Amino acid sequence: MRGVLALCWAAHRRTTGLCAGLDLTLCVLETRFRGPLRQLLLSLRTVALLLGRRPRILLVPNPSLVLSVLAGVLRPLLRYRLIVDAHNEAVIPFIHTQRWVQRLSRWVVRKADLTLVTNGALAAAVEEQGGRAFILPDPIPHAPEMSVARLPGDFNAVLISTFAPDEPVAAVLEAVRGAGVELYVTGNSRKLDPAVAQRLPPNVHLTGFLPEEKYWKLLRSADALVDLTLMDNCLVCGAYEALAAGKPMLLSNNPASVELFGDSALYTDNTPGDIRRMLGELQQERARLEGAAARKRAELTAEWTAGARRLGEALRVWQTRARSGTVL
């Protein structure tokens, strides 16, 4: 789609899937530096890129809040329309709750011509903040075909984790203590609370960060997947991956997850006792959930294709009328 540029400072599956589905050019700017120097260098490279490309429509993900603010500042100067693909943290901050972060997040929502969100609750929050929302959940990723490994337990589950503050990892580890389940925990385990790490149950296996191929091999080899969050109305990436792999899944009991994934998942209140109980139900309902996952995968794939088509058609109209100031 000519004249439309997607720009991010870190590759993310949702962004790459969205760009592939809409046939958008995606530029990923990266640097080996961290902290303020990273923000400065990538900001300078972003300005140079936008001055050279002069897109009519710019799409950026939030997070990064710094990139989104920069895109909002440059918008009236370079005269592009701004689309922000907003994750939960960008609309209702959960991890970074400082007042200045909340104010900047709301400013980005107001400055964007359109804010993409995954569910109706976030769309309502965007509208309340003075923005304009478009609901588009994540696309179902492609799960590569590969041989599976024979895992040693009678029931093997994978906890999909990045050890972020919204993930009740400690509750899951306590839930499986002494239970008839082997639990594989993905992600950089150096981020795990040392006090929790010292008390790991013997049936918990920390995999560390896995390359893409090994990650999918583990998901395909497991009997069930678990991905939990303390965020309200957060649709976790692991749920889409579970559908792609055709696996039973346990999710947090928030309205957005229940509405989207329905009977293809079981849901927990994130407490150790309830997680343990629901893992037992996962084992009992494994066959039903596998069938439900296949049906839900087909349903959500069709819905995403239709939603992406509507967004693409709107962007094409937006392109042709950009000079006249007509909105979507």
Describe the structure in your own words:
- The chain contains 13 helices and twelve strands.
- The protein has about 325 residues and is an alpha/beta fold.
- Helix 6 (about 120-130) links the parallel strand 5 (about 115) and strand 6.
- About 45% of the residues lie in helices and about 15% in strands.
- It folds into two domains: about 5-135, Glycogen Phosphorylase B (Rossmann fold); about 155-300, 3-Layer(aba) Sandwich (Rossmann fold).
- The strands form two sheets. Strands 2-1-3-4-5-6 form a six-stranded parallel sheet, sandwiched between helices. Strands 9-8-7-10-11-12 form a six-stranded parallel sheet, with helices on both faces.
- The chain is globular and about 60 Å long.
CATH H-tier superfamily of the largest domain: Glycogen Phosphorylase B
Order of helices and strands: EHEHEHEHHEHEEHEHEHEHEHEHH
Secondary-structure class: alpha/beta
Mean pLDDT: 94
| Most strands sheet | 6 strands, parallel
The number of E-state strands comes to: 12
CATH hierarchy, class of the largest domain: Alpha Beta
CATH architecture level-2 label of the largest domain: 3-Layer(aba) Sandwich
Number of helices: 13
Here the CATH topology of the largest domain equals: Rossmann fold
How do the strands of the widest beta sheet line up side by side? 2-1-3-4-5-6
Q: What gap, in angstroms, lies between the N and C termini?
A: 16 Å
Q: Measured on Cα atoms, how large is the radius of gyration?
A: 21 Å
Characterize the overall form.
globular
Beta strand %? 15-25%
How many domains? 2
Overall helicity: 40-55%
Poorly predicted runs of 5 or more residues: none
